[in-house]
Structures are given as C-alpha cells and as structure tokens.
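Data availability (excerpt). The following record was deposited with the supplementary files.
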Amino acid sequence: MATFLYKLGRLSFRRRHFVALIWVALLTLAGVGAAGAPTAGNSSFSIPGTEAQKAFDLLEQRFPGTSADGATARVVFKAPSGEKMTDPGNKATVRDTVRELSDGSDVVRVTDPYRAKAVSKDGTIAYAQVSYKVSGMELDDAAKDALKDTAQDAREAGLTVEIGGDALQAVPHTGSSEVIGIAVAAVVLVITFGSLVAAGLPLLTALIGVGIGVSTITGLASALDLGSTTSILAMMIGLAVGIDYALFIVSRYRAELAEGREREEAAGRAVGTAGSAVVFAGLTVVIALVGLSVVNIPMLTKMGIAAAGTVAIAVLIALTMIPALLGYAGRKVRPMGEKGKLLGRAKKKDQPAKPNLGTRWASFVVRRPVAVLLLGVIGLGAAAVPATSLELGLPDDGSQPTSTTQRRAYDLLSEGFGPGFNGPLMVVVDAKGSDDAKAVFAETREEIKGLKDVVTVTPAQPNKAGDTATITVIPGSKPSSVTTENLVHGIRDAGAGIKADTGANVLVTGSTAMNIDVSEKLNDALVPYLVLVVGLAFLLLIVVFRSILVPLKAALGFLLSVMAALGAVVAVFQWGWLSGLMGVEQTGPVMSMMPIFMVGVVFGLAMDYEVFLVTRMREAYVHGEKPAQAVVTGFRHGARVVTAAAVIMMAVFAGFIGSSESMVKMIGFGLATAVFFDAFIVRMAIVPAVLALLGRKAWWLPKWLDRALPNVDVEGEGLRAGSGDDDGDRELVRV
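Predicted structure:
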C-alpha cells in the first residue's frame, strides 16, 4: 500500500493543476445540484418490524384517506383571567378560528372543541386539532404561515393561543458557534505549523471535502428522503476528520523536508507513510458509521452512510489534494523545526535539542505506569457513573425551550387536561378474523379501562368495513415517564390475551408508543452492533499493528472513553449540570439513538489516534528499540500532532453545541467530550502505561497468523528499501 500511495502522492504533486481542477469541478457540480434541489426538511421516521409501525401501516390500509402519518397541530386556547372558554365571545372567536383553519388546501379536518368535548373541566382551556394530508416534512411554508396568522387573529381577540404538534417543526440551524469552532481549529493549526500557508492547507481541503459531501447530500435529500439533520452531522464529522487527516500528511511532509529530501519526494513519502495511516483510520470510521445500518432504523442508516461518504471524500482529498497544494505552496511550507516570522525563528544548529513535552510526558508515564494507569481508569470510571442512571427517549414538545409556542402549548394542555394528554396512545384493534367485531372492540376498551394510570378511554371508532377500530387512551403520566411506558406494555399484554380468546390483533401506536419502540429497538441492537463494529475494526488493527494485545487494548480503552462521555451527557442533558453554560433550556431523557450513534462515531475517531500514535511506537520497536524506549520515541514524534488534531476535533464538535436541534447539540457535546477523554486520558496516558507494563508481549503475534496476514506496510518499509537512500544512520520519522 505504501508504494502505491507514494506513487499517488508524487503524481498528485506533479499533476497538481489536473488534480485541483478535478476537485474544483466536483465541488462545482455538487454545488449546482444542491442549488437546484428542494430544501431538505425533517426526514420521515419509520421503524420497520415494531408494533407501532405495524399499526401505522394497518391504519393506512383499513382507513384510507385519513393520512395517519400526516402532520398535526393542536391550537390551544386559554381564556383571559376571570373568563371561561364557554363564554359567548370566546366561543365565537374559537369557532371563527376553526372555520379559518379549515380553509387550508392541505387540511383534512379540524375538530371543534365544543363538539369534541375538548374543553377543560374548569372551562379555562380548550383546543382544536388540525390534521393535514402531508407530513410535517412536506408541509409548505404557506400552510405554516396560515396557521400562525390564524392563531394571531385569535390572540388579538383577547385569548392566549399557542400551537403544538409537528406542523411547525423547523429546519435546524447550527448558529455562529460552528464558525467559532473552525476559527479555533485555524489558530491551533497556525501554532502547530508556525505558518499561515501550512495551516491553511488542512482547512482548505477539509472545507472542499465537506462542501462536496454536504452539497451531494442536499442534492439527493428529496429523492432519498434525507433530513436536514443528516447534512449537519455529515458536516460535523467531515470537518473534524478532514482537518485531522490533512494535518497528519502535512506534518509528515515537513518532517521529510527536514530529512533533506526534495519536495516531490517528500510529498510522495508523506502520502506513502502518513497516507497509509489515514486510509486505515478512515476505514475504521467508515466501518463504524456504515455499521449503524444493523439497527434497521432507516433514518439512522441514512445518517451513517451519508457521514461515511463524507469521511471517504476526506480521505481521498487528503491523499491527492494535499500533495497538489503542497506543490503550489513550494517553499512557503518549511521543513519541521523551521519557523517563519509569524512565531519566531528556529533554534540554532549548534544549540542542544531539548526534549519536547511529549518526550517528557512519555518518560514520566514509563517510569510510573501503574500510578498513571490507575489514575486514568479511576477518573474515567468516575465520569461514567452518571451513565448508570441513563434514561432514553425521543424529544417531544415538552423538551422544547419555554420560549417556543410548542412548549407553551404543551404546558397549557398539561394544565387543563393532565400531563398524559400530551402523549395519547392509539390502540388499533384488527378484528377481521373475529366472529363479532363489535364485541371485541367493547371488550378491548373495558380491558384497557381496568389498567393502572389510565385517565380516559374513548369509544371505539370503526372503519367503514367494521372490521378495524381505533381507541384513544389518555395516560395519567407525561409521555416520557416510566409509568407511561409500563402502561404501553400493559395494553400489549392485555392484547395478547384478547388475541388468544378472539383471534383479534390489538396494536398500540402513536408518537409515545413509537418512542418506546425506538428505545427498545436501539437497546436490543447495541450489543450486536458493538460486536460487529469492534470485531471488524479489531481484525483491521491486527493487520495494521501485527499484534493481538494492542488492538485489544485499543478496544477496551474505547469502551472507557464512550462510557465516560455518556456519563457527561447524562450529567448535562438529563441532570442539568452546567446546562445553562451549554445552552440546554430543558433537561430530560437522553436521545434514544445517542448511545449507539456515539459508540459508532467515537469508536472510529478513537481508532484514528490509536493508529497515528501507536504506529510511531511500533516503527521504533521493529527498528530495534526496547519497548519502553519505543513508547517514548513514538510520543516524541507523534504527541504534538495528535494533541493538535484532538484539540481541532474538539473545537469542531463543540461548535455544533449552538445548534437549535437538540439531537445535534447533544451529539456535538458528546463527541467533543469523548474526544477529550479518548485523546488525552486513554491514548496519552492509559495506552503508554499499558504498553510499558506489557513490554515485548504487547507486540506478540503467533507466527502462523503473522504468515497469514497481508503486509500492508503502514510504516513504509518498501519505500525505504527501494529508495536507494543511505538511511542506515538516519532515524526515519514514521506516522
């Protein structure tokens, strides 16, 4: 591999005009496609194989034209102090509002609060429910504006009016903090390279790669049903890995220049060595992201594949565009050790070299491996403690900021009708195979009324054929509570008994039941996903490191990182610690897909640092150094660059904490925290401590396996052997 990448690097350096033209053309093509594509909305959500989804599918068949998956809006009215919604003036205002709402072209029906008995017992709060033909993703701005304007008319008549439901779902935005993250990355690059030109190369290539990836996603959003969140997450991960991969190749290029090589040769060797590590690091990220498809939730699968595609583009750009830009930069990118006027001059040749910080730290860890190992493990264990009280759920209007009309509508409904009213359960009774469908409907209703935490059970509403009916159940607890979850399972258990007696199927659906099914599906998929992703990456790392214990140690270190990061997420987003600082206005359950998504992304990123740092150590070891000294050598060459890469990645992820989308905010915080734990505690402390304790055993590999494994030559031994250079007395810098 190293030889092929070496040739690719030299070719890209020589044919830089052609390479640059190709990437600019791809960026232009993707941009034009994105500009002409419809705006992405919120991706449609389905969870194949779950009871809630089966019920939705059944409703589409047995109740055609009812738009079971269409958008809904609850327009909530509250009378002024001292008045009631049943007063003639307020009643007239509400009916005028209902009449205006019914005029929309996408509106299927609007319920009259007074006919539907949707007025609270004290008479102060009422609501009208608006059902649309299309989903919230497909609802156009004109329909949303009409909804808002009608509500405003009722406000001007003296009522308090708020709108809940999914009809007003907005496309998330990231805010200015994303730009701040990129600015921090730029500062770190300038400090690392001491040159504006060298610092600008990783930023430029990362932005080109993300531009191509995100523009492609935007262009295909309508055809493939890719939500706006998909492009934001692809941007987040693509920026982080794009900058890091380019950083490692540019750093290696400067090291090769310091060895006295010509610029084209240095570019080839940089791509052949550091590029090999980039390929394998990128493969681990792609494996982890594509592996999300095993969960069988289409939205999560699309997010993973889209982000994996952006990572693949980042790898290709790093291997081709970076050497091309190095050719354009010429002498403006200086050898390692030389600094321009920006950050001062390099040390004089006769000045003795002082051990850098990485060398000093590694030497300390090698001398005190047990203490460092215990301190690191105990620290991460303490950070992971909050994860033991992890509660999972999907966001509803109750998780919105109190400044939004959706949240205010949620609170008004809770005040007037009870907390469970915001999470009604829809029970679908399929009595097609029963002798007496009406009796089955009545029996089901009576069974549900006898369960705990049930406030209201509506009469069965059969379809035209009379073989299927819907029953609405209002729980006594809020949608995200454990009590409501137990009620869903209780209804399903009762349905199993009804099926045994009558042959009728009883299915529970609705947003609350859907959330519960998603959480359970994700929990069930977590272990198989871990086995698949960690297993594949473990095999890949055996090939890279030619060791059994090093990949095993890498996987165990990752588990520590991800558990500690999940603990931090629980502490902030569920417990409310530092929530004001993070812009979290409402605490609550952690997003259901957060753990499995974090596992996938963090594992891929963690292996990046493992590959870049430990390959330095392995190179030193195979060149004859003792195991402890090889650890120090690896840190001397790799610690500074890995530290810079980690800080950049943290800055990019942290930049997405300013997103208006709670899922993006949570993932940005979780990934930034996980990178901190993994890079600075696991890779910089626990890894060298474990390698120092294992000694030569760390690099042990059975001979039969050594013969069976392909030689991928990450260290570039083939380049060294075939170059004709006399490197016998020269230490070769590896990545």
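Summary of structural features: The CA atoms of residues 547 and 702 lie 9 Å apart.
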